[in-house]
Amino acid sequence: MFHILVHSPLYIADSKPKHQKERIFQFSTQSYPEMAMASISRRKATTVFSSWRHLYSNSSKYSSIVSRSYSVSSGSDENDVVVVGGGPGGYVAAIKAAQLGLKTTCIEKRGALGGTCLNVGCIPSKALLHSSHMYHEAKHSFASHGVKLSSVEVNLPAMMAQKDKAVGNLTKGIEGLFKKNKVTYVKGYGKFLSPSEVSVDTLEGGNTVVKGKNIIIATGSDVKGLPGIIIDEKRIVSSTGALSLSEVPKKLVVIGAGYIGLEMGSVWGRLGSEVTVVEFAADIVPTMDGEVRKQFQRSLEKQKMKFMLNTKVVSVDTAGNGVKLTLEPAAGGDQTTLEADVVLVSAGRVPFTAGLGLDKIGVETDKAGRILVNHRFGTNVPGVYAIGDVIPGPMLAHKAEEDGVACVEYIAGKEGHVDYDMVPGVVYTHPEVASVGKTEEQVKALGVDYRVGKFPFLANSRAKAIDDAEGVVKILAEKETDKILGVHIMSPNAGELIHEAVLALHYGASSEDIARTCHAHPTMSEALKEAAMATYDKPIHI
Length: 542
Ligand SMILES: Cc1cc2nc3c(=O)[nH]c(=O)nc-3n(C[C@H](O)[C@H](O)[C@H](O)COP(=O)(O)OP(=O)(O)OC[C@H]3O[C@@H](n4cnc5c(N)ncnc54)[C@H](O)[C@@H]3O)c2cc1C
Hints:
By secondary structure, the chain is α/β, with parallel strands linked by helices. It folds into 4 domains: 2-52, no CATH class; 61-116 and 163-223 and 350-421, FAD/NAD(P)-binding domain (3-Layer(bba) Sandwich); 236-347, FAD/NAD(P)-binding domain (3-Layer(bba) Sandwich); 422-536, 2-Layer Sandwich (Enolase-like, domain 1). 32% of the residues lie in helices and 23% in strands. The strands form 6 sheets. Strands 3-4-5-6-7 form a 5-stranded mixed beta barrel. It has a 5-stranded parallel sheet with strand order 9-16-10-11-12. It catalyses: N(6)-[(R)-dihydrolipoyl]-L-lysyl-[protein] + NAD(+) = N(6)-[(R)-lipoyl]-L-lysyl-[protein] + NADH + H(+). It is an enzyme of class 1 (oxidoreductase).
């Protein structure tokens, strides 16, 4: 006899209606053959998901690596764990290692912890997205809500100062967490001397050698340049420059319609720039569900963002006052020109390992420069691990954090786990777009029979009450088992709403599970419940 927490009413088989069953049972599987059957169908459904990491974990070269031994508070100079890079992957790994009793040092060259995410990525971009949204609302929406303002102006230095304050407070907060958890913090550029020694040119000007039984590479990523385009961070900027412009450009051209380009385009568009996004591919954000993507593009177009898809930037001329871009259809054809005051190069990011000395210790990378690891985050060099943006997988802060925790758990002799099929992705525009699991295109390609349920926010009472009802929830579920395969949400705060779906996927929930879960009224979350109802049966409110 043992306790089992039943995650889905579909897996309970007796005469009562499915949804009225108790969820915690004491039983033996032998007396509940239906339960065993259901578990099998769930496992069958699970095969729809496959992790990219399996590609690497099957390699015998990587699979046999075991972490070196470690000692709890050994008292020696040697660390149990040394982390190179203090971004979301590295600092989280360092804190977790210390929490597990491992003597830990983290080396960071930037002079501030938090990596790309806190310093020039997630946090400053979200600060500007929020501030620019407030300005846009004040200018365009307050009046219809009965809030009358005589004038609304942008104070860009104040907006930037608020962003910098948020960044400064958060990066200092991590230093505080390092102190609290007794992580040693070395400020400087790390370079491998051997698989267990890192030489650090410190920011104060000296040099020190940090020794570790296990070394984790968490050096992250950098902006991907484009051939022939020199980023001066003034007129031709990367995302870093776009986060600190000193004035609102009249015309902004964004090269690349990924999430960073669209977020930064939104910021400056709301503040008054004419924004044109030039994209080589046929679609914006290629990883997004196609149907949701189309709605999303229409929404951005309504906000006056212009798109030139299937278009290649041939050259960029900065000889005059502005910038002149020469464009060409991606498939070849007549050239056209486009004028801009500022050009944002947002064509993706590349792993960063410059000056780290990977060649000295023989760490293997792929053609894209990403460090290859096995399922335990071990490289081909025993005792050397890698996590976050520097390895294959989605380049996202929360994915880097999950890597960091799991990697350290393996080093400490425990089991770690990251499910790469369940990493949510969010575009923080307005409305936001958030998703987890498979897109409809992916489900079709897998040949799985599926059902789709959708619910528009136009029929959601909370969205109507606040007059912010653009968007939709779309759920994909396996036809045979009703197991949820993917959830896509376009709405205000979709980035918060998605986590109910992430949890549902983790527990292998069915759409009926979500539909029968009581959701508070009036909330945007009710749209997810209604979409779930639409997936296995019928929604109420449409
Ligand atoms: C504009 C922008 C917006 C973004 N928004 C989001 C978002 O909203 N959500 C999200 O999930 N992700 C977002 N990202 C991506 C996110 O920032 C990265 O996925 C995340 O920071 C990766 O974490 P990491 O720890 O692997 O690497 P990083 O954050 O890049 O950190 C690596 C650190 O290592 C240091 N380092 C490198 N080499 C050395 C060396 N040899 N010695 C010492 N230190 C070294 C670097 O200085 C850096 O601080 C955004 C990125 C950008 C650019």
